[in-house]
Amino acid sequence: MDATIVWIVLSRIKGLGPKTLNSIYKKYPSPTKEDLFIAQKRINFANTIKNQKIVDVLNDQMYIKKLYQQVLDDLTKYKRENITVVSISDSNYPNMLREIEDPPVLLYCRGNKEALNIDKKVAIVGTRNATPIGINASFRIAMTFSKMNYVIVSGLAKGIDESAHKGTLSAGGITIAVMPGGVDKKSIYPADNKELAEQIVSRNGLLVSEYPPYQRPNKASFVQRDRIQSGLSLGVCPVQTDVTGGTQHTIKFSKNQKRLLFCPTPTEKGDIPAYRGIHKLLKENFSEVLQDKSDYARLDKLMEKLIPEESKSAKQEPLEDNNNEQMTKLVSVIDEVCGLAKDIGVNEDKLLKMIQQQLKTWN
Hints:
Family: Belongs to the DprA/Smf family.
Oligomer: single chain
Domain Smf/DprA SLOG: 85-295
Protein name: DNA-processing protein DprA
Pfam families: DNA_processg_A
InterPro entries: DprA, DrpA_SLOG
């Protein structure tokens, strides 16, 4: 935790971006409180940072002590909201993400942070302006990979992303939503998907962001989070995308990070904007093709080859009951019950009490 606190302090220094923080990390992979305050051990920031004004701020002991205390206070607040922080110095920081060009030094998490360490992850992404067929394809692809013990990574955006999350939940799988802003309830973006975000958290999934709680997204943060979607994953599947737009950033990052890029064959005819980017990828042979059920096993083998050696030696725990058809049906029934309860005005606490009372009759 000591290193995590230091990284949060450094991240709050104006002018210290991901690249500079990574330069510091390469020289000081596990910074401690003493590295900030003890004269004999203090980090020589001038060796890494060219901007003298930033160096002066870092050497201002009064200011840094005040900032350090603010971080401690904020961590207490985060804990009350079930938000935890994973730093690049931690052993449970995702291996593949650490190896990208500019990994985030901090990951703010709400939900099942153990999902970060499941190697078999695939990102399913795409346009907000999806067609009904594209939305259905995203749902089906996510469901299928979930049943193959993959964690599904996406961005909670309307359209393809939200459908990927929903497909995962319907299969009883684990999904990670990479946020462009804070992971706290008030900062969820888009606001229309706040309910979906809470479903992800309550059903063993994870909301994750390099941005601290209570921070609203900006134009740059959407692009920055795309590198994390790809960086966490073995493969990236753009379901529908135009030749421009946010999904193209994720595609670019996946190429730079040497992830497996694959997309479903378009089934709709005509010049549909949502397919233009997919047609371009397939025409230029930049992408593997997902055309029928047999392709899933082939893509699985290709992605497994990308798992780091240090992770292959560690046994991967299967997602409990993920291949159980009856469990999938049960999840579907629970969804219906929750929907009915909401329609008739039964709140969450009352519904839980009703379920608990019913469970007592089993014995």
